[in-house]
Amino acid sequence: MESVHIENTFEIYMQELEKFQKKHPKAFKSTSFVLPESSFSLLSSKERKELSTIYFNLAKTIIENGTMSEEEKQPQVLDYLNTSIGLDAMCNKGAYSIIAKMHATNNNLFGAYANILISLALGEISHEDEFFIQQCKRMPFSTPKIIKRQYYNRLDEGLLDLFQFEDVVLVLEPGTYTTTMLMEMDNRNIVIIGIGKVTIKNSDINVFRGSDSNLVLYNIHVECTRGYSLFMKTSQVFVDNCWFIKCSGPVPPICIDGRKAKLFMNKCVVANTKNAGGILADIDSIAYIKDCKLYNIGVSAIEVRYGSSLCAKNNDIYHNKQGISAWLDANEITLIDNIIHNNDAEGILINGNREPLLSKTLNIKNPPQHTVQPPPTSNYTKPSQTFAVLRKNRILENGSFGVSTDFQANVRMEENEIANNGVTGCIIKGGVDAFLINNIIHHNKSNGIEIGANYQGKVIMENNQIYSNKINIGKFNDKFYNTLAKKCGVDVQQLSVPVEMNNNEIGDNYSDQENYVNFNVSSNRPGIHLFYEEDPNLYAIGNTYGFNLLKGLDINATATVEASMIFHDTQKIKNKQVSVFLGGVGDLRNIVETVYGLTILLESQSENYNVNLLFTINDFNSTMLTRDLVLLEMISRLPDPKPSFTNLESLYNKWNKDFVVGAIQILSVWGEKNINTNTFHKLNDCINSLIESLENNVKTKKKNGNMGFKKKLPSWVSFKYSPSTASSILRTLRHWKEKSPTPAALNWEARQREHSRITFLRESEVFENLKKYHHVDEDINIYTRYRLPVSTQAQYCDDEHRFAYSGTGRTKFNITMLTVPTMEDDVYPTLSIFRAFQIDDYILQSGNQQLTLYDRLLLTLLPKFVSLRASLRESSSVQMQVVPILGDVIDTLLYRLPSSVRFDAIDCSNLADYVSILNILFSTAPRLMDNSLLTLQLMKLRESPSKPMNEFVEERLGVNLNVIASLTGITYIDAYYKDFAVYSTWKFDIKCKTEDIEKKPVTLMMDVISVANACCTDYTTRIKGLSINTLVRLFQIMVVRFPEKTIAKLFRLLFASEGFIRHVKNFEMHSIELKTFMTMHLSSSIIMKLDEFKDLKAPIARYSVRWKTDMINKNNMFTMVHSEAEIWLRLIKPAPNGGTTRTPKKKKKDKKGKGNNNNTSDDREPIHYYFDSVSLNAAEAPIISISFHLPVPFYNTHKDWILECNVGSVKVLTAAEMLTLSKVTQKDLNHYYTWVDVLKTKDNDKTENSCDDIKDARVCKRCGDAASKFCTGCKSVYYCSKYCQKEDWKRHKKEDCTDKLKI
Question: Which of 643, 606, 775, 633 is nearest to 714 (CA)?
């Protein structure tokens, strides 16, 4: 026999388990190494003992070796130990003391106590054991001295009599114990513990009954078909891990009664009592119910009455007549983190049992119909009022009311979700005092909140979100109350007190919410700004197929990281660094394809490479960046993909079943509207883990002033370019954690609108095409509306939880990742993960089982997830890292990134559709490594363009392709049409070709003028995103490429009378903004050194103004203002009579003045100026604020000019309002974020800065390098070194700094 070297005993036992699994494939149907309980019966007694011992040894080894963290260790150890004793309760007796100690660590009081008692009863420990003594002291009663083990399947009379006279611990070995006698106790301490599966059955009368006692039940199945399973008066009852599922008598199976009675239930199941309730707290008793399931109960799952109280946490209560009933003078009710759903009538009924006197008078002829009220069995303490606190519960899909409150109860509801109930979400009437705070109430069939005749009851509603109900808030109108008051001869105030409402968001899909979305735009960028919403429209899933951004990469030509060579298999490994920028990143599809493609590329190489792959991902929406990080965290946690012996012969036998299940869950989070319970828990684990690591890395100071760092960020994420992004992502993660997910996230059923501007194939057509192409015979409608029906073959990988993939199992939880509630009408109607990933053609059918579209998608992605998982875990030759940067893509490229940062590939998705190809090209191309490529998508095309591709791209560009190549070195490579988009590829060469250098300045001037004409065209015909300031970026590139003499001659021509003024329509109207941006961003260039441009050296200030407008309000805000809205400001010269000057009629151009410089104003100053690069904020709409930059001298001479502001075609500030420039506020004399000059020769050879502590890429005022030190005088201008500060001092002290510095 061959000897195998095993590093530790854990591997030995794991091999034994795998051999056992291979030997018994029918038993191991689940994806886990742990045998499901349903398969125990498939093994013989000998086989069960063998497997029990293997599990026990595995658990012991994990604890002894210490190879896992406590967080990883405990669940696995408990699984192994519980399965071990479930298979054979007696062959590994040491398991119980281990379980006890683990429960004690987790503060599971009764779990620890019960298991240490079992260990004592089995002789594993003694009464003197320190841990045993410690657990006994934690109990609220004395541990009985008599400890008996029961072997037989019958409880004899002697044993039952013992309960009446002695305190006893009874440990029952596996089996069913039948008795016809009552287990009665009086003033006793009784502990009954089951080992393995233990059932106590009494078909005659009650099972447990007693008074003034302490009773502990642990791991017991109780069956009783005639009376109470448990009826205890004035006693303390502790029930843990027990089942009451065959108790079909006429009374509730569990009842506690009496002033001292307390019930503690944990991890229990109460079910199937068709003719009675579930748990009854009666006569001054208190019930604590935690982590239990209550279902199929004929009356109320939990009933509280006659002075009793209830505290219920984290329970699942469903398919009962009522969920929870608190009535007939119930005292205090506290419900936290429960899921109360699919009950026939009310989810929660709270009746204060104090009908107002006026209500009785009004209803004397028509008394309300009440359920039969059982009389109290004894005297009870009547509370002053029934108090109820409902916090963080999910109350969903109940037959009538979600929450019903009546008759002077006092109810406080916080952070609950109340949705999809059959009548009203929450009804308040009969004098109830109700406080509703931070609840989400939506999609209820009648009212969200209904306020009936509430008499003197006080209702306060704050910060609630109430939407998509048939009627959001239903209440009687004033006319009804006035009529009723007159009829009854009472004051109207006696019938209703006005509801106090503060800061609520009310309205279907938030369309008429009271709090406005924060519309902020970035500042200091060329071109017309986008209106960026706080909760913006976004592509939740990619609308075009992902592709490998490094396809065709020459790995040998990429940058080599300066690191020592390491040896592996006697061959050297070359360390390479590859950088990719993703602007408008959207989802992860391109990252998935790129990592997979690069991994395959390296496998085909003859040399060994280790590639550090850096993705800089940018989006203006923190939702997208955060969602991507969560998905990456889920992928990094995927199990080992290698198949194990537990795998069945199936379509997925190439993969570990746990890995396939994890991939199914990731697909669900990525592309579905609803996710099942297991996936929801995995998602929450990832969110919580990221929150913890971000909280510990966002450097929050403790009280003692020290920095606390505990859990580190995952190695695959860094915020080195933008630490502030980490804070934004942390806020988003906290929002997802604190706000429970809601069906409104993608509520296609409620309101599915398709905007007329969208002309793409509809979702069903996309699936029809896939069906035909792949010859799939299935109903494609099961995939529409964000559903991914897991195929039968895929479900076999998760046999233990197959129910979760059914229709009912998939509607319990909703995904928070796809979007935000404000988007439910605006999600792109053809979005589907099938449009983000192209199904591989090579996937073939396996056996007789027909492949579904889901199978094809999953099989396509599994190998790609393998590559991505290995890359994230640094176990691959490709080790990836993502650097998120929140903000505008052009702002990010122009000033957020250090000047030395270059990329091997840049993809900007379809942003060129919104900010123009020119702006994208001028911002991205200089960031490319030599011979690297830039990819742009031009979207919104139903079919391939009719023109040749180069002509089509040129039309979208607005300028001749050859002109752009000549001026900037940005060259069009090719373009192709695919999947409703044109993909164009470009490259950049900083070196100027000889033929371009030799061009005459006049020729260059006309080329520049062709760009200026595109930028100054009227707004109605101008390409979206262009403005005069696009020229400034063009100038930055040209200054580096062309000789100084050529540039000097060119700019003298451009600004002479035969230049811009003659050839560019309306140029003078844009000239001030052009000069402003030239001053801000070209201060160190040759242009500013020319005598003709001295006036450009004027100080620049930022100005701001606020006003109120009638053009933006809660009704039209979301239709007029959106993510593509154009904004511009116009400054109008006042007329002598106090009005505005009209535009004069066009005259023939005067040819005189040839050669005159036009840098200074003359007698023919234009009557208005345009400003495109402005920042607008509508967070406080209808109050609008706008900020912009101006030269200070210009401001001083134009204070009486009048402001006008447009959003799209709508004037939100009209000239008639006569708001003059004198009303604006000067913010500062510093422009902080000047564009980084990435083209300086000294930077071209630098590699990307890899330091982790760059502070938002502050840049040196003189040289543009990353800087962390600022001028101590003005505290606003940054420098990289003392040298640069000295060199810039002459300019700085005059223009920027107001204090004198001693250097």
Answer: 633
